Amino acid sequence: MPVDENGHSQVLDWQDGIENALAHLTCVLVARRTRTTPERVTWQQYDVLEMLRLRGPMTPSALSDSLSVSRPTMSKALRVLKDQDLVEQAALGTDRREQTTSLTAVGREFLDRAAECRRDNAKIAESVLTPAEQAVFADLCGKVAEAIHVAAQPAPISP
User: Fold this and answer.
1) Is the dihedral of CA 45, 37, 104, 111 positive or negative?
2) Which of 94, 109, 92 lies closest to 57 in space, CA to CA?
3) Dist. CA 122–CA 59, nearest whole Å
């Protein structure tokens, strides 16, 4: 994307309000993640992988509850992730109908690359912000993320 002598985008005036700044940052971060992890994983599928990384093996129903998505939506996401060999499922106990889902080695490697991309992004941010600006940026990101999270809480999904 072309930039002017001040490092500002010539395509999008990202300093023209919060909406444009958020949109621009989102586009840049998504483009970088896509280059690092070309598997074409959707945000929802990525959330499934991260949940499994954080909590370990989970049942599809626990995943759907944790991520506030319907069971059919979760089934579709898991089917795609299994086809990409990012997750695997195994019978849970003696009831073969109950499955537990876990990350595969390929899934862990995918998340490792995504984490490396986040670390690289953080290093770039640190290189252009003073320590005081870094603290303010981190505080403001946290405040905005929490407000968006609370405001976007969907209604509970009926069983």
Assistant:
1) negative
2) 92
3) 33
* Residue the block writes with tokens 């500002």: 8
DSSP string, 21-59: HHHHHHHHHHHHHHHH-TT---HHHHHHHHHHHHH-SB-
Q: Is 21 exposed, middle or buried (0-12, 13-18, 19+ CB in 10 A)?
A: middle
CA 101 – CA 99 distance, rounded (Å): 6
H/E segment holding residue 9: none
Cα separation of 93 and 46, whole Å?
27
Which residue from 108, 123, 111, 102 is spatially nearest to 37, judged by alpha carbons?
A: 111
3-state SS class at 79 = helix
The string of pLDDT tens digits covering residues 67-113 is 989 999 999 999 999 999 999 999 877 776 778 999 999 999 999 98
Handedness of CA 94, 95, 96, 100 (dihedral sign): negative
Q: What is the pTM of this model?
A: 0.67
Give the DSSP letter of residue 156: P
